[in-house]
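User: Fold this; tokens only.

Assistant: Input:
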Amino acid sequence: MRLAPIRVGVTNALSMWRQPLAERRVAIDRIADSGIDHVFFADHVSFHDGSGKDGMLQATGIANLHDTLGIYAGVYLLALRHPVTVARQISDVAQMAPGRFTFGVGVGGEDRHEVEVCGVDPSTRGRRTDAALDIVGRLLAGETVDHESEFFTIENAVVAPAPAGRVPIMVGGRSDAAIARAARFGDGWLGAWVSARRFAEVEERMPGGDHGLQIWVGVGADRDAARQNVAESMESFYKVPFAAFEKYTPWGTAAEVAEWLAPYVDAGCRHFNLTPCADSEEEAIESIAEVRRLLKDHQ
């Protein structure tokens, strides 16, 4: 079986959305011109201190900043929204950016309060995500949907037009429940904070899927500087010590990062979503473009 080519994406959370429109376009063009395949973005409503960016609005913004760059929601907190309205948003983004949008879904939960303020019981977010994925998938396939569950009562729902081509759905997470969810509803699994061995186990369970890995990476002139870049960024975002993530976080030169990621390629990973932490945006993009080149050579 011929394997799909490796794809590498970079987060848009560098500094782009704090820039004027003209500079945002320059930043997006820099990413596209580097050869990087797609831009991915997280989705948070009110994370820890109230911060966040809406995933669908980010998808819309990127769709209108560039006409070929891939767009990847990685990952969208579907349990915090109503699935019919989300299906409408996906359909609209797919029309703006035909063939370029990948919809990644996760249950979240790093900040339980974020879930609670959206009126959702955190203990139900997995089951709620399952129900919502069923509804969204059927609506995007052009079905008329009737659905009755503990979370939604829907009669005769239609979202038209359905996307002309399938919008790939990736299910993110590291738990057994997330992997089962990916097998049931997704086109692939998006792993986070997992070993290459764990990745290979999932590939055996779901052979041939468009499976990916989403992680932070540190880049810098030397390993100490690279580690400091990623440690400071992750501690600021997650509000926990870097030691909680260190085992699953590469840092160093582009070559060292690519070497660290190569076992995941061997285990069946077909795409990477990388959040680079560097001294500058330019250095971050150049480093990830080089990581992409090296991983494709490894493949």
